[in-house]
Amino acid sequence: MKGHGLLTRRHLLAGVGAGIGCGLLPAQAAPGQTRFAPLAEEEALIAFGHVGPITDGGWTTAHELGIQKMKRVFPKLRTIYVETVPYSADATRIFRQFVAEGAQMVIATSNYGDFIKDVADRAPDVAFLECDGTRVTDNLGWYYITHWYASYIIGVAAGLMTKTNRLGYVGTFPVPSVIASANATLLGAQSVNPACTMNVISINSWFDPQAATQAASALADSGCDFLCGITDDPAYLRVAQARGLKAAMWNLDMRRFGPDSYVSSVVLDFSHFYIEQVRARLTGQWKAAGTFLTLGHGVDRDVWGATVPPEIAARADAVRDRILAGETPFRGPIRDASGRIRVAAGEIMDDQAIYQWDWAVQGMTGLV
């Protein structure tokens, strides 16, 4: 099958069918020593399972852009993909069909837990990668971006730009990736404006523009003058533009949807990671591991919006410089929403701890 072929979920279930650099921080070594045979580029098939449509303009589009850059490096490589893979037994059938189609590497661009692990366990000769995963086996690894640093930097700008000291966050699900994003943004804001609070409204979807619009409108009505979130569409930026508010986005540059309101975005670039992983698989050197894509190397803040005052951009970027130099802003004391100290003075939350964050920080409402 030539090119970046789409296998629809209907076909798969029927059993039919055929920048930012990348600094990698190994987070967990593979427990086994599995080796995969080298592959000729023209004989390789890489399969991708996406959580949303590749045209969503957000998370899945960011992965698709990375894949397209990877394919320019390996022009003879064959790829297939399925969009909007559900979090259900259907996912298992889709990943199993990838294996049946002859894929030597299967990459899930979201967390599918046991749905992908069960397939990987039964296909030891296939390399599997799971974005936002948690487990490493002989042939299953995970990768994720340390987006909390970019969120913190943007939060600094939010804390300096808000007039009401009320930030609004359009959330999706109360999972660690969302919790870390919201917490980091609020902590960044509080570092320069301790009076800042954040109200979260979760819409129980990664891509639901109507629900995101309703949530953003409710947050604006409650007095929030700076909106942020983690959705895959620009809906709440449109609300901010219409109501004269400021907003920070996720995944890609979305300023065209609200040029007067756009502050920045947590921008993603998976291309270098995909290039490295595919090259390792082709040469027979791939090994399962857990990998973080770090600030400036796979994830970063976007170019500041046109209406961000230069002095505010400079203060936020000074924080970015310190983080890049090795300083972490996630140092105690850090209290939870009830006021209880969760990170003691002098203690540091490392990336693994932030990756598993399951409690809201002080000043947060509506998150967990």
From TrEMBL:
InterPro entries: ABC-Purine-Binding, PnrA-like, TAT_signal. The lineage of its organism: Bacteria, Pseudomonadati, Pseudomonadota, Alphaproteobacteria, Acetobacterales. One of its GO terms (cellular component) is plasma membrane. Keywords: Signal. Pfam families: Bmp. This is BMP family ABC transporter substrate-binding protein. The keyword Signal applies. Residues 46-290 form the ABC transporter substrate-binding protein PnrA-like domain. The keyword Nuclease does not apply.
